[in-house]
Specification:
The complex is a heterodimer of chains A (about 350) and B (about 625). Chain A is built from 2 helices and 28 strands. In chain A, strand 20 and strand 21 form a beta hairpin. In chain A, the strands form 7 sheets. A 4-stranded antiparallel beta sheet of chain A has the order 3-2-1-28. Chain A starts with a helix and ends with a strand. The longest helix of chain A is centred in the first third of the chain and has 23 residues. Chain A is mostly beta strands and about 350 residues long. Chain B is mainly β. Chain B has a single domain, classed as Maltoporin, Chain A (Beta Barrel). Chain B is built from 6 helices and 36 strands. Chain B has a 22-stranded antiparallel β-barrel. In chain B, strands 2-7-8-5-6 form a 5-stranded mixed beta sheet. In chain B, strands 1-9 form a two-stranded antiparallel ribbon. Chain B is globular. Classes of the chains: A mainly beta (about 350), B mainly beta (about 625). Chains A and B meet through strand 7 of A and strand 27 of B.
Chain lengths: ~350, ~625
C-alpha cells in the first residue's frame, strides 16, 4: 500500500513530464513574435517634434498597438521616419533627421543603428551583408542639395559609415538588381547606378519626370517618375542598366506616393493643388499604359498607400494636416470603406506580414 | 510701486492706493535727489486690467541673460523654449506666440514678417525695467496684443552726476556676460552709454534619449554670442519742452541647438537696430507727444537673409480735462518694408486711438479705449475696451478692490502669412478676439507686515486664428481656427520685516484652458482639446530672506503636462525646477558692490520644455555688479 502511495505521484509526474515533452516539440521553441504577423504602420511624425513611431495593427483582432518602438525600447524613436525596410531578418527605420534604427521584426527589440554622418537619409537597401543608405546631404543656402550621397555601412546591424558615394541630387528610392544598386535621384531627374563590386557610380542616366521609386512589376524593373500631367514608368534592363522604354500614363497631378497592386496595376495618389487641394487615389495599368480609375478613392491629405495582397485590401493613410494623429482607411478591392484606424502622426507607409 | 515690490500681477490701482505706494518706493530704488526723466505712464488708461511690473532690482541677477529666462523662472508665464538660449516664444493666456505685442520704449518691435518676438535674443540689459499687460489690449496697443503685451522701458534720471556701472556674470558652460555703462546727468541733460557682450559655449550635458542606451552626451553646436550698444539721451529744453531719444543695436550669433536625434548644423545671426525719438510739450493740463522711431531686423539663417524695416511716426495729446475726466487722442503711422528671402513687400498702416478715464468718485474709476487700424486700405477690426475698478472696502489695514475689463483685440496677418512664396495667402483676414476678465485684489498692511493677493478669472474667444496647413506640396495659412480660452491667475506677495531681517514671498499660479473649437477635416480629432504646448497649470514661487546686506532666495517652478498634437497626442511630462542663491551688498565710499551666487536647477532635473530639446541640468552662476 505504501508503495502504491508512492507510485501514484510518480504516475502523475510521468504524465506531466510526458505532456511537457510533447510541448517542446512544438514550434513554440522559436516564439512567434507579437509583430510577426499583421500590419506595421509607419508614422513619419511631425516636423520639429520628431515623434515618428511605428504602430502595429492586427486585422484578425482589430487591435492596434501604439508606439511599439518606444514600448519595447523604453525611449522615443526621436526622428522623422522616412522609410521602413524589412531585409535580412531585420527592420530598418530610416529617419530623414539623420539616423537609422535597426530592430528585430518579431518584437522590435533594438539591434543597432547608425547615428553619425547622415543628414537627410531617405531609404536603404541591404546587399552583400552591407547597408546602402540614400541621403540628400545638407541643404545649401538656396535649399538645394548638391552634395547628396549613398552611405555604405559594413554591418547589417549598423555602426559607422565606411564610405560615402556621391550621387546625383536628392536620391530617394533604391533597388538592388543584378550587380547594381539603382538610385532614383529626384531633383537631378536621373537614376544613378552603383556597382556593388566597386562601390562606385557606374552610370548616371537622365529620365523624363521626377523619379522617386523602383518597382518590380511582373519580373521587370521599372522606375516610377512624375510630371505635371503624367505618371511615368521607365523600364530598365537590370543586366546593363539601360533604359528600355518609357510608359507615360496620362494622369495629372500624380505624386510620389504609390503602391503596387495586382499584376501591373499601380495605385497612385494625385493631388489637385491650388485652390482645391483635393487628393485622390488613381489606379493605372503599366502594361496597358492606361488609367483604370482616376479617383478610386477621394480624400484629403493622403500621405501613404499600401496594398495588402491577402484580401486585396487597400490601405490609405491621411495626415490630418499634421496637427494631430493621422488616420488609416482600409478599403476593399471594390473601394468600399472597411475600417478606419486612428494611428500616429503623419502615417506614410505599411509593411504587411 | 507696490506691485513692483511684491512682484506679482496686481492691478495698478493708481491714485486710490497712494498710501501704500509712497511707503514702498523706498524698497524699489535707492532714494536719490534725482528726478526721473518723464515718460508716459503705461497704466494710465488701464483701469480693470492686469499689469505685472518687473523692476530693475528684479532683473539684477539676470544681467545679460535672455528675458525669456527671467519670465520662465520668475513669473506664471510659460514660454516655449526650443533649447537652452534658443528661440523662446511667449504664450499668454493660451494664445499663440504671435498673440502678444512687444514694445521697447513705446515702439512695437514684433517682427512684421514673423509676427512675434524671440525673447531669447532680448537680453536683460537692453532695457531697465518691464511691464506685462495681461489680456486683450488691442485698443491700447494695437495689433498683436490678443493675449497681452510686454513693455520694455529705459529709465533715465536728471541730476545724478557721473556714474559708472559694471555688471558681470560668470557661469557654467562658459557663460561670461559683461556690461559696462557710463552715465552723466545734470539738471537739463541726461546721457547714458551702455555696451555689453554676452557669451556662452552652452555645452551642457544631457541624456540623449534618442540613442541606443540613452547615453549622457555633451551638447554641441550651441555656442552663442551677443553684443550690443545702447545710447540714451534726454534734454529738458525748458520746463515745457523735453526731448528724449534711445538707440539700441543688438547682434546675436547662435549655433542652433539640434533637436535630439538629428545632426543639423544650423547657424542664425540676428541684428536688430531700434531707435526712438520723443518730443514732449507740457501745456496746462495737456501733454503733447510726438514720437518717431525705426526698427530694423536683419536675420540670416544658414545664409538665407531676411530683413524687415519699420518706420513709425505718432502723435498724441494727453489731456486732464478736470478732476473727473482724462483723455488721450492720437494717431500712429507705420511704414513697413520687407526684404525677405522669397519675396519683397511694403505696407502702410495708420491707426487712430482714443483713451478716456472717468473717475466719478474716489472709489470708482473707468477706462474706455478705442482704436481703429487701417492697413493698405483694409480695415482691421475696430477695437474697443472698457474697464473699471471699484474700491470695495478700505480701512487702515485692509483694502479690497474689484476690477473688471472687457476688450476686443486683433492681429493683422504677418507679411509671411500673406506674401511668403510659396503658400502665402493674400486673402487672409485679421485674427480677432473678445476678452473679459474680473479680479479681486486684497491688500493688507499692519506694522511691518504686508500682504497682497489677487485672483483673476478670464474668458476669451479668438476667431480667425491663422494656422499653416499642408496644401499638396506646399503649406499655406488659413483663417480657420476658433479657440475659447479661459483661466484663472492667482498672485500672492507677502513681506515681513523684523529688525534687520526681511522676509519676502511671492507666488504666481496660472491655470490656462485654450480649447480648440474647429476641425480642419472630417477626420480631425482636435475639437475640444487643449492647444498644443499650452500647460494647463504653471506654478511659481520664490522665498527671499535677507538680513542687512545679505539675502538669499529659493525659487520653485512647476510646469504641467503639455501636448504636441492638437488632438491631445504627444504628451510631454510635467517638470519642476528649484533654484537657490545668495546676494551680498556692500558700499565703500562711492563704490557700491553687489555679489551674487546662484545654483539653477538645483536637483539636476532632466527636463524638456519642448519635445526633444535638451535643457541644462544643475548649473552655477556668479554675479558681480559694481557701481561708482
Amino acid at each position: 500500500m505504501k508503495n502504491l502511495r508512492l507510485l501514484l505521484p510518480l504516475f502523475w509526474l510521468t504524465f506531466f513530464v510526458a505532456s511537457c515533452s510533447n510541448d517542446t516539440t512544438d514550434p513554440i521553441d522559436v516564439p512567434a513574435g507579437e509583430f510577426e504577423k499583421g500590419v506595421l504602420i509607419m508614422n513619419e511624425g511631425a516636423f520639429g517634434v520628431n515623434d515618428g513611431e511605428v504602430f502595429h495593427y492586427d486585422p484578425s483582432t482589430g487591435v492596434i498597438k501604439k508606439d511599439i518602438f518606444r514600448a519595447k525600447n523604453f525611449r522615443p524613436f526621436g526622428g522623422l521616419i522616412q522609410d521602413m525596410v524589412e531585409a535580412e531578418g531585420r527592420i530598418y527605420l530610416v529617419a530623414n533627421t539623420g539616423k537609422v534604427e535597426i530592430v528585430a521584426p518579431n518584437d522590435f527589440d533594438l539591434l543597432g543603428g547608425i547615428s553619425l554622418g547622415l543628414n537627410i537619409s531617405r531609404s536603404l537597401v541591404a546587399v552583400n551583408q552591407k547597408l546602402f543608405i540614400s541621403d540628400w546631404g545638407p541643404y545649401d543656402a538656396d535649399f538645394n542639395n548638391p552634395d547628396s550621397f549613398v552611405a555604405i555601412v559594413n554591418s547589417l546591424n549598423g555602426g559607422e559609415i565606411a564610405k560615402k558615394i556621391a550621387v546625383s541630387s536628392r536620391p530617394e528610392g533604391m533597388i538592388a538588381a543584378g550587380n547594381f544598386i539603382y538610385v532614383a535621384c529626384t531633383a537631378a531627374k536621373k537614376y544613378d547606378v552603383i556597382s556593388v563590386s566597386s562601390e562606385t557610380v557606374a552610370a548616371s542616366i537622365a529620365v523624363e519626370g521626377n523619379p522617386t521609386e523602383f518597382l518590380e512589376i511582373e519580373g521587370r524593373l521599372f522606375l516610377y517618375a512624375q510630371d505635371d500631367n503624367h505618371a511615368i514608368f521607365h523600364e530598365i534592363n537590370p543586366g546593363n542598366y539601360a533604359l528600355v522604354r518609357t510608359v507615360k500614363i496620362p494622369l495629372a497631378n500624380s505624386t510620389p506616393i504609390i503602391a503596387l497592386g495586382e499584376g501591373s496595376e499601380v495605385l497612385i495618389v494625385t493631388s489637385t493643388g491650388w485652390p482645391d487641394y483635393n487628393d485622390a487615389v488613381a489606379k493605372v495599368s503599366v502594361n496597358s499604359g492606361q488609367v483604370i480609375n482616376p479617383s478610386f478613392y477621394v480624400g484629403n491629405g493622403i500621405y501613404g498607400l499600401g496594398f495588402k495582397i491577402e484580401g486585396k485590401e487597400i490601405y490609405v493613410a491621411e495626415h490630418n494636416g499634421f496637427q494631430g494623429n493621422g488616420s488609416v482607411f482600409i478599403l476593399s478591392a471594390a473601394g468600399l470603406l472597411v475600417k478606419t484606424l486612428e494611428v500616429g502622426k503623419a502615417p506614410s507607409g505599411f509593411i504587411f506580414k | 510701486m507696490f506691485q513692483a515690490i511684491l512682484n506679482q500681477e496686481l492691478n495698478p490701482v493708481k491714485e486710490s492706493k497712494i498710501s501704500l505706494e509712497t511707503e514702498m518706493t523706498s524698497q524699489d530704488t535707492i532714494a536719490l535727489s534725482s528726478v526721473e526723466v518723464f515718460s508716459p505712464s503705461l497704466d494710465k488708461y488701464t483701469f480693470g486690467s492686469t499689469i505685472k511690473y518687473i523692476s530693475e532690482k528684479d532683473l539684477e541677477i539676470f544681467q545679460g541673460l535672455p528675458l525669456s529666462d527671467f519670465l520662465q523662472q520668475r513669473t506664471g508665464l510659460f514660454l516655449r523654449q526650443y533649447g537652452s538660449g534658443m528661440l523662446s516664444s511667449l504664450t499668454m493666456r493660451g494664445t499663440s506666440a504671435g498673440h502678444n505685442a512687444v514694445f521697447w520704449n513705446g515702439l512695437p518691435i514684433n517682427s512684421p514678417s514673423l509676427g512675434q518676438s524671440d525673447f531669447s535674443i532680448l537680453p536683460v540689459g537692453g532695457f531697465d525695467h518691464a511691464a506685462i499687460y495681461f489680456g486683450s489690449g488691442g485698443a491700447l496697443y494695437g495689433t498683436d496684443a490678443i493675449g497681452g503685451a510686454v513693455h520694455l522701458i529705459n529709465k533715465l534720471n536728471f541730476d545724478e552726476g557721473h556714474q559708472v556701472k559694471i555688471a558681470s556674470v560668470f557661469g557654467s558652460f562658459g557663460r561670461w556676460n559683461q556690461q559696462v555703462e557710463y552715465s552723466f546727468s545734470g539738471k537739463k541733460l541726461s546721457t547714458r552709454t551702455r555696451i555689453y557682450r554676452n557669451f556662452s559655449e552652452n555645452d551642457f550635458l544631457f541624456r540623449n534619449i534618442t540613442k541606443m542606451g540613452t547615453p549622457i552626451e555633451r551638447q554641441n553646436q550651441v555656442r552663442l554670442e551677443q553684443v550690443g550698444v545702447m545710447q540714451d539721451l534726454a534734454w529738458s529744453v525748458n520746463p515745457k519742452n523735453l526731448i528724449s531719444t534711445s538707440i539700441w543695436w543688438n547682434e546675436t550669433n547662435r549655433e542652433i541647438q539640434p533637436i535630439m536625434g538629428s545632426n543639423t548644423n544650423d547657424f542664425q545671426s540676428d541684428r536688430n537696430l531700434r531707435w526712438v525719438l520723443d518730443y514732449f510739450l507740457f501745456g496746462k493740463n495737456k501733454i503733447w507727444n510726438v514720437k518717431s522711431g525705426l526698427v530694423r531686423d536683419d536675420q540670416t539663417f544658414n545664409g538665407s537673409f531676411n530683413q524687415t524695416i519699420q518706420y513709425f511716426l505718432s502723435g498724441d495729446m494727453d489731456w486732464e480735462i478736470n478732476s473727473l475726466w482724462n483723455s488721450k487722442s492720437g494717431i500712429r503711422i507705420t511704414e513697413i518694408q520687407g526684404n525677405l528671402s522669397t519675396y519683397q513687400a511694403k505696407e502702410s498702416r495708420i491707426e487712430l486711438y482714443q483713451s478716456t478715464n472717468f473717475r466719478p468718485s474716489e472709489r470708482l474709476s473707468f477706462s474706455v479705449n478705442l482704436r481703429q487700424l487701417v492697413f493698405e486700405g483694409n480695415l482691421a477690426p475696430f477695437t474697443p475696451s472698457i474697464g473699471g475698478e471699484w474700491e470695495v472696502w478700505r480701512n487702515d489695514s485692509h483694502q479690497i478692490h474689484f476690477t473688471s475689463n472687457l476688450a476686443r483685440s486683433f492681429k493683422v496677418p504677418t507679411l509671411n502669412d500673406r506674401f511668403w512664396i510659396p503658400g502665402g495667402n493674400p486673402e487672409l483676414q485679421s485674427e480677432k478676439s473678445w476678452s473679459g476678465e474680473s479680479s479681486l485684489n486684497y491688500l493688507f498692511k499692519k506694522g511691518d507686515f504686508e500682504l497682497s493677493q489677487k485672483i483673476t478669472v478670464y474668458r476669451m474667444k479668438v476667431d480667425n486664428w491663422i494656422i499653416w496647413l499642408p496644401k499638396g506640396n506646399v503649406w499655406s495659412p488659413e483663417n480657420i481656427r476658433e479657440v475659447h480660452n479661459s483661466g484663472l491667475e492667482y498672485g500672492l506677495g507677502a513681506n515681513q520685516k523684523a529688525g534687520e531681517w526681511d522676509l519676502n514671498m511671492n507666488v504666481n499660479y496660472a491655470k490656462t484652458r485654450a480649447i480648440n473649437q474647429t476641425v480642419i477635416s472630417k477626420n480631425d480629432r482636435s475639437k475640444g482639446n487643449q492647444l498644443p504646448f499650452t500647460p494647463l497649470h504653471k506654478f511659481q514661487s520664490i522665498i527671499m530672506v535677507g538680513k542687512g546686506t545679505f539675502s538669499t532666495f529659493l525659487n520653485y517652478q512647476r510646469v504641467g503636462e503639455r501636448f504636441s498634437g492638437t488632438d491631445g497626442s504627444g504628451r510631454l511630462e510635467p517638470y519642476q525646477l528649484w533654484d537657490v542663491g545668495g546676494n551680498y551688498n556692500w558700499s565703500i565710499r562711492n563704490l557700491d558692490v553687489n555679489l551674487g551666487f546662484q545654483i539653477n536647477n538645483l536637483f539636476n532635473t532632466d527636463y524638456m520644455v519642448m519635445p526633444l530639446r535638451a535643457m541644462p541640468g544643475r548649473n552655477y552662476q556668479l554675479n558681480l555688479n559694481v557701481k561708482l
